[in-house]
Amino acid sequence: MRKFVGLGITLLLGALFLGLVGIALAQEKENEFIIFHYWTAGGEKEAIDALFELYQKRNPGVKIVENPVAGGGGETMLAVLMSNLAAGMPPDSFQDHQGNQQKDYIDAGYLEPVDDIWAEANFEARINPMWIKTLRFGGHVYSVPINAHRTNWLWYNKKIFDELGIKPPETYDELLETCKKIKEAKPDISPLALGTREKVWSTYLYDMVLLTTGGPDFYERANTGKIDFRNDPTFRKAMERYAALIPYIYPWHATKSWDEAGALLKTGEAAMYWMGDWVLGYYLSIGMQPEVDFSATAIPKDIWMGHADTFPLPKGAPHPNNARDWIRMCTTPEAQKAFNLIKGSVTIVNDVPPDVYPDPYRQRSANDLRTLRAVCDGFHGGMITPAFGSELMDILTRFLVDQDVDAAIQAIAEAAERTNLAEACSWFWEQ
């Protein structure tokens, strides 16, 4: 009998021990926060690190496990992320955008709503209506945006402009004229920098010519497939305008990443750069001085175009409480300021005053976001679908080489039909 009693006690103690080990392992697992992002360049890394520092102060017992995957535009990270999501192994959160980019995850059943976090933070009342239109799907929201990136900035080498006595352009026509003046005065300098080692950046000039040629309403219709690409005269004019800029673009753009292309302004190899405001963080990180080494102008000046970086809640997140704490933190002015003061963007919330920024570009961007018509940019903002965007990148990369307007228009029309662009974007017009 004692033998069986002893065996029972041993089994009981063993079970208690295993239970305690299980609890400890569960607690250890619960004390992690796993996040995917692609902020690895100068200015970007420091910005996400500032968020990590703030989160660690708010959650001192949580271990942050970040999975940074380099690559401008995020194509590499998205491929890694999608394989994890498809395999049922999501991170706790990840860097995302809005619009069709986020809708793909929602349609696949990969995200959970965070309506309660928006309600707690009174978030909807604190942001531009454009963001609500591109972040709400079927009456629910699935992420919190941490910033507002303006993408209709033209950055320029101020010393070159001052030397040549050039007024910063504010329209497409003025931009083209400026390219001609720079090329004539300094033939060894490329008027426009560009880096297409990641093909996505070819779409930024596409957005610019759509917006400046047809205005914001046409821009939204074109990016959601509601025009006849083959026969629309405004679209043809936009592509002709794109073609007219190509001779002034840095000729070895296929060898450059976005930040390496931006550095051409520092070396004096290029005079201007059409790029989103994250390049400001990069310029500051490499020691360039605002209004000394560089400046910026918005084209067109009466429209704010851009996108947000958001953090969604994946379904089946391994540490959902920690994930929700992260997303909740991102609604706060404290987190928004910590990130955007470094990143080059502005806070998406309107309760952070524009004068917190030390440079005139973000002060202007924050004011403009409050007062001007805002539109969401094509690729990163999710105005176009990822499927159409993937084909568009290839089409425009070829276009930069052959400059064949007719071939590009035909290819874009076929891509829009093949990917059902208009149908896939119908949600935008139902908001």
Largest sheet: 4 strands, mixed
Number of E-state strands = 15
Overall average residue pLDDT: 91
* Major sheet strand order: 10-11-9-12
In percent, how helical is the residue content? 40-55%
Terminal CA distance reads: 74 Å
Counting helices, strands and paired strands, the structural category is alpha/beta
Low-confidence parts lasting 5 or more residues at pLDDT below 50? 1-28
Radius of gyration: 24 Å
β-strand amount: 5-15%
Shape, principal axes of CA atoms? globular
Number of helices: 19
Structure report:
This protein is α/β, with parallel strands linked by helices and 431 residues long. Strands 10-11-9-12 form a 4-stranded mixed β-sheet. A 3-stranded parallel β-sheet has the order 2-1-3. Helix 9 runs antiparallel to helix 10 (233-245). The protein has 19 helices and 15 strands. Residues 1-28 have low confidence and may be disordered. The termini are far apart. It has helices at residues 2-30, 44-58, 75-86, 99-107, 115-120, 129-135, 158-164, 172-185, 202-223, 233-245, 258-262, 264-267, 278-285, 320-329, 333-343, 360-371, 386-402, 405-418, 421-424, and strands at residues 32-37, 63-68, 93-94, 111-112, 136-137, 140-141, 143-145, 149-150, 153-157, 190-193, 270-274, 294-298, 303-307, 310-314, 373-376.
